[in-house]
Amino acid sequence: MSAPFLLAPMAELSHRALRELIEEFGGCDEYFTEMISAAALFGGGPFEKWYMDGGPCPEKLVYQLLGSDIEQIVKAAALLDTLECAGIDLNMGCSAPLIRKAGAGVAWMASIDRAGDLVKEVRKVVKRRLSVKMRTGFTDDFAYLVRFCRRLEAEGVDLIILHPRTAREKFKRSARWSYIAALRQELQIPVAGNGDITSAEGLITLAGGGETGPCDAVMVGRAAVRQPWIFAQAKRIGSREWPEKVTDTIIKETGLRFLELLARWQPPEFHISRARRFFSYFCDNLKWGTHLQNLLNREETLSGMERVWQEYFNSE
C-alpha cells in the first residue's frame, strides 16, 4: 500500500488557489499551508485571513507555523487548533538567511533543549496532530539528528517530516533519502520524507519504499507546482484513467484555470507575485518556457498574463 501523499508548505505557493487546482485533478492526502508567521497572526494585518483559509478541504489541511518566540508560537498554535484541520506543523527547516538570523526556521535545530521546550509548550495547547518539518541540521551529523528528534518525540510530536539536506546546502546536493529510512528506525513515531521528487514515477517509488527503505508519507513541493496533476498521475499510473503524455491542451487549460482560481481565492495584492511564482515553475513544461515566463513577468495584471498565455498557445 502506498504511503500518503502530502503537499509541501511553500511560501507564495501553497495557498488555496494551488490547493484547489490540485484537488480538481484528484487531490492528495494532506495539504500543508505556506508558513504562517506566529507574530503576524496577532498583529492585526489585513492578510492573515487568507493564510488561515482552510479550503477546499479543511479536513486535509495542516497549518504550518513559523516563529522565533515560544510564547507567540504557542498562542498562534492554540488559535489554529480551534479551526477545522488535520494538524499543526512547526517550521524548523526554513533556511532562508533572514529567517534563520531571526531565530526561526532551521535556527531551532541549533539547540535540542530550546526546540524541545517549544514542542512541550505547544503540545499543551494542541489537541490535533502535531508535526515538525526540519532539515538534518547545520552539519551532516546523523547522530545529532537522532538525538534532536528523540527529544521532540519525548515532548509529544506525532510526526517528523525530514528534508534531508543541511541548513546551508539548499538544492546544491541531492537529498539523502537513506537518512529518512534510517531515522524511521530510530523513532517510535512516523517519519515522512521530502526532497528531489520530480515525477509521478519517482513519487510512487519513494512512497513504496524504493531502495532506501520505507517512509510513512511522501511530501512533494516544487514538482507539484510544475505538475499539479502529479498526485493524480501517481495514483492512476499504469491505468487508462490518465494519459501517458500531458498534452499542450492540458497545460494550457491548467494555466488558465490557475489564474481563475488565483483571482477568486487570493487578495488582489497577492495576484501578481503569486502568479509569477507559479509560472516560474509551471513554464518548465513548455519548449520555450523561459521566454514565456519572461513575457508573463512583464505583465502587471492577471488579465495581461492571461492574454500572453493564450497568445503563446495560439501561435504554436
List keywords for this structure.
8-stranded parallel beta barrel; globular; 9 strands; 12% strand; 316 residues; alpha/beta
Molecular structure report:
The protein is of the alpha/beta class and 316 residues long. 46% of the residues lie in helices and 12% in strands. An eight-stranded parallel β-barrel has the order 1-2-4-5-6-7-8-9. Helix 7 links the parallel strand 6 (129-134) and strand 7. Helix 12 (248-265) runs antiparallel to helix 15.
SSE topology:
Blueprint: E1 5-7, H1 16-25, E2 30-32, E3 36-37, H2 38-41, H3 48-51, E4 61-66, H4 70-80, E5 87-92, H5 97-101, H6 112-125, E6 129-134, H7 142-154, E7 159-162, H8 177-186, E8 191-194, H9 200-207, E9 217-220, H10 222-226, H11 230-236, H12 248-265, H13 268-282, H14 289-297, H15 302-314
Parallel strand pairs: 1-2, 1-9, 2-4, 3-4, 4-5, 5-6, 6-7, 7-8, 8-9
Helix pairs in contact: 1-12, 4-6, 6-7, 9-11, 12-13, 12-15, 13-14, 14-15
The count of DSSP E runs of length 2 or more, i.e. the number of strands, is 9
* Gap between N and C termini: 42 Å
Provide the helix percentage.
40-55%
Largest sheet: 8 strands, parallel, barrel
Order of helices and strands: EHEEHHEHEHHEHEHEHEHHHHHH
- The coarse overall form would be globular
Short overview:
The protein has 316 residues and is α/β, with parallel strands linked by helices.
